Each structure stands twice: as C-alpha cells, then as structure tokens.
C-alpha cells in the first residue's frame, strides 16, 4: 500500500476487458493466457480480488491494453474446467476504484495502484423513476438467475436498480462506463430514464 496525498492506495492486478462490471454484478471468464492463469492462481491463493476495467484501446489478448481509470473489484466465486479443457471462472463485482498509477509486469500483467470509492448510500427509488424498477423486474423475470430471486426491497434501492439496469439494457460500453463512473444513484437513474425511449421505439 502507498499513499497519494492523504489517500491510501492499494496495489491490485488489473484485467482489462471489453465489458463493464458493476458492483453486485456477475462475470464469467474463459482463462487461457499465462498472465491471467497466474492472476487467478494468486487471487485464489491469497483470497484477493482483481480489478476489471473497460478496454479503451487494444484487445483482451496479446499486448497489454489501455484500461479505463475507473473499474470494479472482482472476487472469484468459483472456477471449473470448460469442455475445451480451459479454465473458467465466475466472479462477482465488489467495490469501485480509480486507478492512480499503473504498470506492466514482466509477464505482461497490468497492475494498478488504486483508490477505493465509498459504497453508495441506500436511497429509495423516487416516484418519477418507478417505471425503471418495473422495467428491471420484467427484464429479470425473462433473464432468470440470481437477481431474479432478489428481495422486493432491492427494487426500491436506487443504486441496485441503476446498476442492474445498466447491465441488462442493451447499452453501448461507453454508456455503461459513464453510468459506472457516476457517484450519485439518482443521477444514474436520470441518465437511464433518458435512455428508455430509445428502446421503446426500437
């Protein structure tokens, strides 16, 4: 751990991907590159997570890609062997962070010194955004899975509703990244409300 002014920074491995992981979200990955096999081994051994950041330039495989500065910590929930013999993992999104500094290790793995963002407060979904909770409920009913079995109270949590809609609506990755970087759950709901007419007219 190091400090930048009064802010404590933690060093974590980064996994740049063509996706955005939100707090409370889930992620399934197929692991085959040696640097990411080492990442999974180390995280499993140490009980630590890794940072998921959207790729701004470059690709997931090959040379290290340029990641977005804001990402989400992923914690490995399970790992298994895929039918093709490769390693598969399931991970869940935890805390958000901002990368202060990054470096590429000899094995090609990107590490970042990150400052953690505080968890968002639990704020009720205001009446003017009640439609968003209804839309999310319908999306989850069709999709199934863990979130479809969420407690009813979750659908009155502005942060949870916003993050889940940002995952399930067919948004551009740049839009998802913007929603991840908002620190106000009500501002996120405002942004999502502006997106809804686009999908209703499709």
TrEMBL record:
Top-rank taxon: Bacteria
Residue intervals of the Lon N-terminal domain: 9-200
Transmembrane segments: none
Family annotation (Gene3D superfamilies): BPP1347 like domain, LON domain-like
Pfam families: LON_substr_bdg
PROSITE patterns hit by this protein: LON_N
Protein name in the entry: LON peptidase substrate-binding domain-containing protein
Protein's organism: Tahibacter soli
């Amino acid at each position: 751990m190091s400090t930048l002014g009064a802010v404590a920074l933690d060093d974590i491995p980064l996994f740049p991907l063509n996706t955005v992981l939100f707090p409370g979200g889930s992620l399934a990955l197929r692991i085959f590159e040696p640097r990411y096999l080492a990442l999974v081994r180390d995280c499993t051994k140490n009980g630590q997570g890794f940072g998921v950041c959207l790729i701004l330039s470059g690709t997931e495989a090959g040379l290290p890609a340029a990641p977005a500065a804001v990402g989400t910590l992923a914690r490995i929930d399970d790992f298994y062997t895929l039918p093709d013999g490769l390693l598969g993992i399931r991970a869940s999104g935890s805390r958000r962070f901002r990368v202060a500094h990054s470096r590429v290790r000899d094995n090609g793995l990107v590490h970042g010194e990150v400052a953690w963002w505080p968890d968002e407060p639990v704020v009720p979904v205001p009446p003017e955004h009640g439609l968003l909770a209804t839309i999310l409920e319908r999306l989850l009913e069709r999709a199934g899975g863990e979130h479809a079995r969420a407690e009813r109270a979750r659908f009155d949590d502005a942060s949870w509703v916003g993050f889940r809609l940002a995952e399930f609506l067919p948004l551009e990755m740049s839009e998802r990244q913007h929603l991840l970087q908002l620190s106000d759950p009500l501002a996120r709901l405002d942004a999502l409300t502006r997106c809804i007419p686009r999908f209703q007219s499709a």
